[in-house]
Amino acid sequence: MNISTRQGTLEDIPAVFELVKELAIFERALDQVSNNVDKMSRDYKENLFNFFVAEDDSKIIGLCLYYYRYSTWKGKRLYMEDIIVTEDMRGNGIGKILFDATVVAAKKTGCTGMMWQVLDWNTSAVGFYRKYGTNFDDEWINCNLDF
Questions:
Q1: What is the pLDDT of residue 145?
Q2: CA distance 3 to 106
Q3: What Å distances lie between residue 45 and 9, 10, 42, 101, 109, CA to CA?
Q4: Residue 88 counted as domain residue
Q5: Which parts form a coiled-coil structure per UniProt (predicted)?
Q6: What spatial distance separates the first Cα and last Cα of the chain, rounded to whole Å?
Q7: Confidence label for 146 from pLDDT (cuts 50, 70 and 90)
Q8: Any domain includes 38
Q9: Contact (CB, 8 A) for 37 and 13
């Protein structure tokens, strides 16, 4: 393996969207994906999100997508939307490399911390985040409104 990470670019969006679909399949929710390459490309151009990719010999095998949010209590925070590693490459430390790159980006851009969600049944991800001393919240309820 020849793993490298870098900041993602517009040209990476088609490969990134394939990873998004792979995650949706893993989470048994492919039917809920309404995004597409064109929408992601437009939103990336509008600076709505940024991302890191992990590559193995120039093939994208991992992604960490993030954006910034603002907390009235904490100030600027980085919200990590997803870390995705192709199924055949999981267990090789690629998620850690992407997570660490994201932590560095958060610190460099003056964030006071990071936030993300993890499914309670994804025990490998929960265990991964525990190694970082993550605070798991059992008080707040996730809410959303779809249009």
A1: 65
A2: 22
A3: 10, 8, 5, 22, 19
A4: yes
A5: none
A6: 43
A7: confident
A8: yes
A9: yes
The answer to the question of residue 140 being in a domain is: no
Q: Looking at residue 66, what is its pLDDT?
A: 98
DSSP 81-99: EEEEE-GGGTTSSHHHHHH
User: Which two three-digit tokens encode residue 141?
Assistant: 């309820």
Q: Which strands make up the sheet holding 114-115, listed edge to edge?
A: 3-7, 50-56, 59-71, 75-85, 114-115
pLDDT band at 106 (very low <50, low <70, confident <90, very high): very high
Residue appearing with tokens 């490298």: 4
Enumerate residues 6+ apart whose C-beta is below 8 A from 83: 62, 63, 64, 95, 98, 99
Write out the residue range of the structural domain in which residue 47 sits: 3-131
User: How many folded domains does the chain comprise?
Assistant: 1
CATH number at residue 49: 3.40.630.30
Q: What pTM was computed for the model?
A: 0.89
